[in-house]
Amino acid sequence: MQDVSTPPPAAGLVAIQPSRRRHCAGCGRGPLPMLVVEDRAPYCLGCADLGHLVFLPRGDTALTRRAREESGLSVVVVRFNRRKGRYERQGVLVEEPGLARAETRCLADAEARGRRRVRDARRRAARDARFAEAFAAEILRLFPGCPRDRAEEIAAHASVRGSGRVGRSAAGRALSEGAVVSAVVASVRHLDTSYDGLLTGGVPRQQARRRIAAGVETVLREWRWETEAGAGR
How much is the pLDDT for 17? Predict the structure, then answer.
């Protein structure tokens, strides 16, 4: 288990939102909502000479960037995600006057930035649509017996931006055969077999996969049949 005595590797100053109760090694105050690690010991922001800073949560990229530009001192705030096994950024600590100046700058060009966000979103949506089409086409090339609407559904699901699914991996973006097959197998597993029911019933994942493996292969064989038939001609 990660402990605050091992701070996350990062450039510059880092503050931690601890997942367990911690008390300051200097003044004894606690539990601390936020701390800084020095010599493997936790210190409150006051003892670390950072008590004058204010916390700006993540979420507004422009405000965060400008607040750090306007602040003579800034600190990245992180929290350890046990499920993912890594530290994740939660926001920044900045000087209050710097934050006020950053907010003024953001208000001054909010409309222009809003229009730019709309344009960027449209461009991303167009790229995502083209990628999903290419992914579906590759599914149909490998599995010509797969219904077109099913191929499009698999491609759309696998390629959702920010989902972490196989379509967003490097292999998926390159339309590698392995990534495409993995997306098809996952869809068949969930929609054409009793896999989800087995998991709901408490069957361990690997055991459930072994149980439905033959059913998955049957569907894949049916969807491949045109390729195999063409190879035999």
Answer: 95
